[in-house]
Amino acid sequence: MDGSSNPNAARKAWLSVLSKAPATDLANLWTKAGYDPAHEVLRASEIGAVMVRGRAGAAGAPFNLGEMTVTRCSVRLASGEVGHGYIQGRDKNHATQAALADALMQTADAKDVDASIIAPLRKAAERRCATRAAKAAATKVDFFTMVRGED
Fold this sequence. Notes:
single chain, alpha+beta, three-stranded antiparallel β-sheet, 4 helices
C-alpha cells in the first residue's frame, strides 16, 4: 500500500525500523541526539510472548509455529502525543526508546528525529540486508543441462 491509501504507512515504516534495529544502535543514536523529552509512562516496559504463525509455502493453511518473546512500552509526551514500542526480545530500554521516538515522530520535531535516529537506522538495516544478499549470492550455484548428441 502506498501512503495515499494508508494514512498510517509512514508511522508503520518508522515503527518497523525502530523495532528491528539493534538495541545498541538505537541507544547510541538516542544518546548522541540528546533527546530527553518530558513524558508519562502509560505502560511500563513489560516482557511477554506472542504466538508466531506460519504458512507452508506462504499459501497453505496457517499453523502455530511457536512463541516469541517481545517487550512493549507506551508513553505520552507532555505535549500529548502517545508513542508505542514493541520489540523482539527482552530489552526494556530498547522498547522505551522506541516508544519515545515514535511519540517524537508525531511532533514538530519529526524531521530532526528522522534525520538523527530513523534515517541512520534505516540505512544500517539496508546495509545489513545488502551484505546478507551478497553472501547468499556468493554461494549460488547455477545448474545447466547439456544436450547430448545421442540419436
